C-alpha cells in the first residue's frame, strides 16, 4: 500500500499543495497533520509509521515534512528499511524502491557522517588547546556515585532480586551508567580496609 504524509507547521497554513502532489504520485491514502517541525511528537505520523508493514511505501513532498534535519531523516530511513518499507521524497527525487534512490541516500548518509566527524574533531582540537593552556576542566559527570538515582540503583541491586533493566527504569538511569558506577562502587568497597580485632 502507498501512503502519503502531508504536514504544515501551523493551523493557518494550507495543506492543499502537498495533497495535490501526493495525489499525483498515486497514493492510496493521505495522512494529514498540522504540527510544528520542532516538536518531536507528531502523533499522526507516529500512528502512520506504526501502521506500515513490509512492502508499503511512504511518500512525502519534502524531506523536512518528516524530520528537522538530515540526521533525524536518516535514522527514520534506517528504521523503515529495517522493516522493508520504502520511502519517496518527491522534491529530491529520492525513491528507495530504485537503485538510484538508494544511492542518493547513501551519499546523504556519508555527508552526515562526515559532518559529525568534523564537529568531533573540532571539539577534540578545542580540548587539546585548553589542556595545553591548563584551562580544561573535563566533562562534568552527572551520574556519580553520589547521585540519588545511582545510590538507589545500587541499593536495589544489593537488597532485591530485581533485574538490572527494571532497576534502571525505576531509578531513571541507563544500564551503561549503572554498570560503570557498580564497577566503581565495588572497587571502592574492595579498597576500604577492614578493621581487625
Automatic annotation (TrEMBL):
The keyword Acetylation does not apply. GO terms for molecular function: DNA binding; DNA strand exchange activity. InterPro entries: Recombinase_CS, Resolv_N, Resolvase-like_N_sf, Resolvase_HTH_dom, SSR_resolvase. It comes from the Bacteria. Keywords: Coiled coil, DNA integration, DNA recombination, DNA-binding. The active site is at 9 (o-(5'-phospho-dna)-serine intermediate). Residues 31-83 form a coiled coil. One of its GO terms (biological process) is DNA integration. Residues 1-134 form the Resolvase/invertase-type recombinase catalytic domain. Belongs to the site-specific recombinase resolvase family. This is Recombinase family protein.
Amino acid at each position: 500500500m502507498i501512503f502519503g504524509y502531508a504536514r504544515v507547521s501551523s493551523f493557518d497554513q494550507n495543506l492543499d499543495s502537498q495533497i495535490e502532489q501526493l495525489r499525483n504520485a498515486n497514493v492510496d491514502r493521505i495522512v494529514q497533520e498540522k504540527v510544528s517541525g520542532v516538536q518531536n511528537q507528531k502523533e499522526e505520523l507516529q500512528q502512520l509509521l506504526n501502521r506500515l508493514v513490509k512492502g508499503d511505501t511512504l511518500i512525502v513532498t519534502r524531506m523536512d515534512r518528516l524530520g528537522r534535519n538530515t540526521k533525524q531523516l536518516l535514522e527514520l530511513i534506517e528504521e523503515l528499511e529495517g522493516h522493508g518499507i520504502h520511502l519517496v521524497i518527491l522534491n529530491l527525487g529520492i525513491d528507495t524502491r530504485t537503485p538510484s534512490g538508494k544511492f542518493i541516500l547513501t551519499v546523504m548518509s556519508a555527508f552526515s557522517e562526515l559532518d559529525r566527524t568534523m564537529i568531533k574533531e573540532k571539539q577534540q582540537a578545542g580540548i587539546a588547546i585548553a589542556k595545553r593552556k591548563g584551562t580544561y576542566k573535563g566533562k562534568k559527570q552527572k551520574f556519580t556515585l553520589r547521585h540519588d538515582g545511582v545510590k538507589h540503583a545500587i541499593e536495589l541491586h544489593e537488597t532485591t532480586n530485581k533485574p538490572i533493566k527494571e532497576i534502571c527504569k525505576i531509578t531513571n538511569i541507563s544500564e551503561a551508567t549503572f554498570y560503570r558506577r557498580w564497577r566503581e562502587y565495588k572497587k571502592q568497597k574492595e579498597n576500604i580496609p577492614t578493621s581487625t580485632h
